Amino acid sequence: MSLEVVRLRGVEPPCLSAPGPQPGVSTGSTTAANRFSFARTTARLERGRYIVEGPAHCFQCHSEVDWKNPGAQPKAGKKAGGTIFVEDGMQWLVAPNISPDVETGAGSWTDEQFARAIREGIGHDGRRLFPMMPYMNFRSMSDEDLASVVVYVRSIDPVRNVLPKTVLPDVVKGSLPPHEPITDRASWLRRQKPPRQKRHRRSEVILAADERR
């Protein structure tokens, strides 16, 4: 099985869950799972499409893929609908439905839940994610790129596809890297001024093939 690992390097990741005013972020409920939402803008939609469909290749895992199609594109009507990795010998591993479908997909997830899954490896229901989801690489994704990814994924057509949850074998659970939170509300509240923003450098994409049988 070939895995492509994408690393996006740019600015250092600042606190994401800041409850105070931030550019492009609107606050709503103060519950732990929904302290902010990303503003939907044309610029974010376009940037998100580039990242998701390009270097992050999100839909190659979160879709039923036609491997005979050049570029391994999702099957018609299956984009972001999730899949089970049966052909890879990991029947216990499920890439969830991240389409906007409310009942079977990510339509009911908050933006913060999306963000934690992408950069911290914590699912919307609090479970640790298997690191085939490259959250350790996405940790260095800038806040703006992260917002763009969420905005774009929410814009695609919903796919109704009921899937089971991943159930990690005990041996796999024991090998997971320690959780390193980025979202830290308390530390943000202690700041007297917003974090200093560095100028973005051009993202560097690193592709590594990991052959497993």
Q: How would you describe this protein?
A:
With 213 residues, the protein is α+β, with helices and mostly antiparallel strands. The chain has one domain (25-190). Helix content is 22%, strand content 6%. A two-stranded antiparallel sheet has the order 1-2. Strands 3-4 form a two-stranded antiparallel ribbon. A hairpin with a 4-residue loop joins strand 3 (83-85) and strand 4. The longest helix has 12 residues, at 42-53.
Structural class: alpha+beta
What topology, given as strand order, has the largest sheet? 1-2
Main beta sheet: 2 strands, antiparallel
| Tally of helical runs | 6
Give the CA-CA distance, first to last residue.
6 Å
Tell me the overall shape. globular
Write the layout of secondary structure elements.
Layout (H helix, E strand, L loop, with lengths): L24 E2 L10 E2 L3 H12 L29 E3 L4 E6 L15 H10 L14 H4 L4 H11 L16 H4 L11 H6 L23
Antiparallel strand pairs: 1-2, 3-4
